[in-house]
Amino acid sequence: MPDDQLSLLLTLTFVLGLVAGLLLSLTVRQAFSWVMNRIYQYRYVRIRRVNRS
Predict the structure, then answer these.
(1) At CA 32, angle to CA 30 and CA 38, rounded to 5?
(2) pLDDT tens track for 23-47
(3) CA dist 15 to 8, 9, 28, Å?
(4) How far apart, in whole angstroms, are the C-alpha atoms of residue 18 and residue 6?
(5) For the chain, first and last CA: distance in Å?
(6) CA Rg, the chain, in Å?
(7) For residue 53, what pLDDT band results from cuts at 50, 70 and 90?
(8) CA 21-23-24 angle, 5° bins
(9) DSSP string of 1-53?
(10) What is the Cα–Cα distance from 21 to 15, expressed in whole angstroms?
């Protein structure tokens, strides 16, 4: 019985870690793309302002 519980616990922790890693990578990718979009928008706006003036 203890061995079964141990293996179950290991499997649970493994699955939880996998899910957490997936969520983390997704959020990191989203945040990265958001930051890149912000930088591009900022540059674009600056360039447009410089060209306009």
Answers:
(1) 105
(2) 999 999 999 999 999 998 888 877 7
(3) 10, 10, 20
(4) 18
(5) 77
(6) 23
(7) low
(8) 60
(9) -HHHHHHHHHHHHHHHHHHHHHHHHHHHHHHHHHHHHHHHHHHHHHHHHHHH-
(10) 10
Predicted local confidence at residue 49, as pLDDT? 74
The encoded tokens of residue 48 equal 């447009």
Write down the mean pLDDT value for the chain: 89
Distance from C-alpha of 13 to C-alpha of 11, rounded to nearest angstrom: 6
What average pLDDT does the segment 9-21 reach? 97
Q: Which residue shows structure tokens 């957490």?
A: 20
Place of tokens 């990578």: 25
Gap between the Cα atoms of 30 and 28, Å rounded? 5
